[in-house]
Structures are given as C-alpha cells and as structure tokens.
Amino acid sequence: MGVWAERQRNVLDFALASLLRRRGKNLALLAVYTAVVFLVASAMFLLSALRREAALVLAEAPDVVVQRLVAGRMDLVPAAYAERLRGVRGVSAARPRLWGYHYDPARQATFTLMVPGQGAPQEGTVVLGAAAARLKGTAVGRPLSLRAHDGSTRTLTVAWILEAESELVAADLLLLAEADFRAITGIPSGSATDIVLTVPNARERETVAAKIARDLPDTRSVIREQVQRTYDAVFGWRGGMVTVLLAGALFAFVIFAWDRASGLPAEERREIGILKAVGWETADVILLKAWEGAAVSVTAFLTGTLLAYAHVFFLSGTLFARVMKGWSVLYPDFRLVPAIDPYEVATLLVLTVLPYAAATVLPAWRAATVDPDAVMRS
Fold it and tell me: 46, 268, 288, 317: least buried by Cβ within 10 Å?
C-alpha cells in the first residue's frame, strides 16, 4: 500500500473513531439526513417511473380516437361510422373498438374490459392482466365469473395471463371475445365504444381531426400527441405539488447546513486545537473533517436511496402514490417496473451531499487556520 493510501486509511480510522465518540448526536443527524434523502428520492423515482409507464402506454395508443358525444357526454358510436372515416384523406385504417369498465364490488376494484383488434380470445375464455389476476386470485385454466349488465353471471375460463413490458399497460385489463363482451356490457350489435384511426403521417392528424369534426359534427377526435401533452402536464403538476410539500423538509435541511457552516461546536473546536497543538497541519484537519462528512453523507445517501428504491418499486410508492397516480382508489394495484435514470441519481447526489460536505469542511478550515491556543481557550 502506498504512502498516500496509508495516510488516507489512518485519517479515515481517526474520523470514524471521532464520529463514534459523539455517536448519539451523529446517529440523530444520520437519521434526519437519511429521511430527507429518502423523501426526495422517492418523489423523483416515482415520478420518473410513472412517466416511463405512460410513455410505454402511449407508444401503443391509436393515432386518432373518434368518440361520439350526446349532450356533451361520451356515447356509443355507430360502427357504420368507420366506413365513412376510411374515406377521409390521410386515414389508412379505421376500426370500431369495444371496451368498457366493470366494477367488482367484492374486491372494490374497477377492471377494463376490451375486445382486442387482433388475436381475440375464443368465446368463453378470458385473458387477464397480471394485477387483475392477482386481485381475482385466479390462474390459467381456472374459471372466472363476471356479473353481466342484466344481473346474470357469465363464467369464463382464464386462457392466459398477460406479461406486458409495463404493468400499467395491462394491470386491470380483461380481454374478451366480442360475443362475451356484448353479453356482459349490453352494448348492442352495430355499436362500438369508439373508433380508432391509423394516420401514418403525424403532420396530417390535426387536419384529419378537423375534417372529421366537419363531416361528423356529433363526434370529437382525440389525437395521440394531445394525450401525451396532457400526461406531461398532469405529471408535471403533480410532481410540482409534491415538491412543494417536500420544500419544508428541504428548507429545514438547508437551514441545518447553514448553521453547520456558520461555526463548529466548542467541543469540535477544542479537538481541532489539540490536533494542531500536537503537530497536525491545516490540510490534515480539513482531510479529517472531509472524511467525517463523507462517512455521514455517503451513508445517508446510500441508505436513503435504497430505501426510496424499495418504497417505490416494491411497495408501489405508498407515501406518494395517491398524489402522483391520481386514479380512483378503485383502480387495481400494480407494480412499477424498476428503472433508474443515472442523471436523476447524480442530481440527487448533488442536491443532498454537496451542501453537507460544504457545511463540514468550511468551518473546519476556518477553525484550523486560527492559532491552536486561541482555539482551545475559546
């Protein structure tokens, strides 16, 4: 081991021993520091994970969705509209879509029923999302009973469980055959929930929507880019709200760091004076305090970040989920796919470690440059 490394190890041993001598104060500091990192990291990880889930959902969303409105509310659309929409210039395909919601009072959850455009299950079978299967307590090959609109019960057999890249895509999803869907929901033949269009040229979608509004005045068109902008605005607003809620904790931490930077306690000043009196150089004292700060801040950063990771990706971000997700409490629970952006971790490191490092080193440097006798007498 080189001389430099041996010196660093000796100073680190002394720094850890110094921290242990004041273990009560330092453990309390570490707990507060870790809590601040945990709260900030949880909000960052949860917001980032929800943005990623939303992006995955929108990647598979239709280019344009045409809905029919009656008295300002969404109503069933005649399937024959699809034929007229195929004639709009710029539209390469138009397909009536069947989907709706199904409330399960026993589990107090709302599921999404849908007939897929391709690869629909056979009549009498159902395909479930992973979260829906967990909530229903069912598995492949087992029966699944759904209450129909007329009060009767329709029993289907689970064909398979969806394994989507994002659980948000299929968390509450139940895929059915068209006959089963119409029997459960009561939507008559010849009607659909909405019509989805394929418009390959993204620059023509606004023009296509304007043409549809002119030709079919009882409809409205929802463009994928509009939905994406809405998601960004909603998550940005919710993230800002959580940031405001955390501002109190961050402000308290800044005040604490400023208080540390304004001066050292008398006990630590005496310790520095003694070290200078026995021959320590100013650089040695600064190095000692830097190691003390690094030991506390790195421990708090790693512990807080790991706790935040477990909180968001294993406990579904319980503390902030209601605020960030914004869905009804009836929405089935789903697990976020673990994903960490290194840029976010670096930002978190800068926001939480650097202020404390500065608060540790600056007062030590000021105390170390004063005469040892004056420091110990003060």
Answer: 268
CB atoms within 10 A of CB 113: 21
∠ at Cα 150 (146, 153), nearest 5°?
30
Nearest to 316 by CA among 45, 108, 37: 45
Tokens of 255: 């005040």
CA atoms within 13 A on the CB side of 74: 12
Count of positions (residues) in the chain? 378
| Residues 126, 103: Cα–Cα separation, whole Å | 16
For residue 255, give every residue at least 6 positions away whose Cβ sits within 8 Å of its Cβ, in sequence order, or none: none
Show the tokens assigned to 180. Answer: 């089963």
Tens of pLDDT, residues 130-158: 888 888 888 888 999 888 988 898 899 99
What is the average per-residue pLDDT within 225-250? Answer: 71
Alpha-carbon gap, residue 94 to 83, rounded angstroms = 7
Show the tokens assigned to 130: 């992973």
For 224, half-sphere exposure in the C-beta direction (CA atoms, 13 angstrom radius) is 21
Contacts of 134 (CB under 8 A, 6+ apart): none
Q: For residue range 151-204, what is the model confidence (pLDDT) as tens digits? A: 898 899 999 888 755 566 677 788 999 999 999 999 999 999 999 999 998 888
- Tell which residue, 253, 213, 275, has the closest CA to residue 11: 275
pTM, two decimal places: 0.64
